[in-house]
Specification:
Number of helices: 12
Mean pLDDT: 95
Largest sheet: 7 strands, mixed
Structural class: alpha/beta
Oligomer: single chain
Distance between the termini: 41 Å
Low-confidence stretches: none
Bound molecules: 6-O-phosphono-beta-D-fructofuranose
Strand content: 15-25%
Strand order of the largest sheet: 3-2-1-6-7-12-13
């Protein structure tokens, strides 16, 4: 029989996103209302189990009023992978495996199970720590919505609404000045934010990483609009988008946590379009605005359902699982399954059919996209 739970830990890892506080609140409230356990809040992701003095008890008073707040009251980082932990030695950064220390630290703190709220990076770490004896339950978060096993992650809906709002605002300037305006949005290697915000705001061109774009097709679409009297165009480009046969654009700075930072495709595309189209082109990079602000009703509800169910999974002894949304229900899926591969926009998605129906340019001809679909290894 599994040993009884007395104390659980909760941490938020990786990039912040709207809804993290709603999960923390749901975890604490469910524990207090339904179980006789204690909750320890771990600060700054796994860093809180590596460095001393970064753990504090969480009570109802600590989570009062945080439901509508963006960010995370626990802090987070995407630089604290215990398996590759950066330490400065003699002025040089070196990587160390401190995962055994993390497991020991959790034991010393009396943590019987750890709720890890994170994206694929943090959940991969959680899965590896599980192999070392730490009992974990995962809660999927990311604005990118690129995790397998769940229809959607919390944070995504707010990010899409933020991007849609930005596009609605950019449209008025594009229209008034007869310009093409490009909005670069986040999403890493998945095009979910670009695609959904683009369709929701009536964009003319949407470029996503899953469909390498042909510059001629994009330029022709803008030229066609000009000829037909619509002398402005709205282009949404996902940060991971790339031209046919080309590469994604990365920022020059040093990589964070082993991951290169995407960014700059908007400006690169603008330069190319300026050469080809008789139209003024401007670029807006939406950046971290997508990760900020108050969560939408959808995200507050999903985050609350995830937080409560994560606690019930701990109680049921379903460790090594992640809460997920499937068919309108919250279910448990093995963390290993969720992190096995990223979830990209499927080329056979009906959302692409919607885009075709609305005459939105997806960066390549429909024939080419169908060829890509046929050639894609699934
Ligand atoms: O994964 C969330 C995300 O916002 C991505 O969309 C983006 O590429 C990345 O994080 C940005 O990370 P950082 O905050 O380290 O710049």
């Amino acid at each position: 029989m599994a040993s009884p739970i007395r104390r659980i830990g909760v941490l938020t890892g990786g990039g912040d996103c709207p809804g993290l506080n709603a999960v923390i609140r749901a975890v604490v409230k469910t524990v207090v209302n339904e179980y006789d356990w204690e909750v320890l809040g771990i600060e700054d992701g796994f860093e809180g189990l590596i460095q001393p003095g970064k753990v504090r008890p969480l009570t109802l008073a600590d989570v009062r009023g945080i439901l509508p707040r963006g960010g995370t009251i626990l802090g987070t980082t995407n630089r604290a992978n215990p398996f590759h932990y950066e330490v400065e030695v003699d002025g040089e950064l070196k990587l160390f495996d401190v995962s055994d220390d993390v497991v020991r630290h959790a034991q010393v703190l009396g943590i019987d199970a750890l709720v890890v709220i994170g994206g694929d990076g943090s959940l991969c770490i959680a899965h590896e720590l599980m192999q070392k004896g730490l009992k974990v339950v995962g809660v999927p978060k990311t604005i990118d919505s690129d995790l397998q096993g769940t229809v959607i992650t919390f944070g995504f809906d707010t990010a899409v609404n933020t991007a849609m709002d930005a596009l609605d605002k950019l449209r008025t300037t594009a229209e008034s000045h007869h310009r093409a305006i490009i909005l670069e949005v986040m999403g890493r290697d998945a095009g979910w934010i670009a695609l959904k915000a683009g369709i929701a705001s009536g964009a003319d061109v949407i470029l996503i990483p899953e469909i390498p774009y042909d510059l001629d097709v994009v330029a022709n679409k803008i030229a066609r609009r000009n000829r037909s009297g619509s002398k402005f165009s709205i282009v949404v480009v996902a940060e991971g988008a790339k031209p046919v046969g080309g590469e994604a654009v990365y920022q020059a700075e040093r990589e964070v946590g082993g991951v290169r930072r995407l960014g700059g495709i908007g400006e690169a595309l603008a330069m190319q379009l300026r050469e080809r189209c008789q139209v003024e082109v401007r670029v807006t990079v939406l950046g971290h605005l997508q990760r900020g602000g108050s969560p939408t009703a959808f995200d507050r509800l999903l985050a609350s359902r995830f937080g409560t169910m994560a606690v019930h999974l701990v109680a049921e002894g379903k460790l090594g699982y992640m809460v997920a949304l499937q068919d309108e229900c919250i279910v448990a899926v093995p963390i290993a399954e969720a992190v096995a591969q990223q979830k990209f926009v499927p080329l056979e998605s009906d959302i692409l059919l919607t885009a075709f129906g609305l005459d939105i340019c997806l960066g390549n001809s429909r024939k080419e996209i169908e060829k890509m679909q046929a050639g894609r290894v699934t």
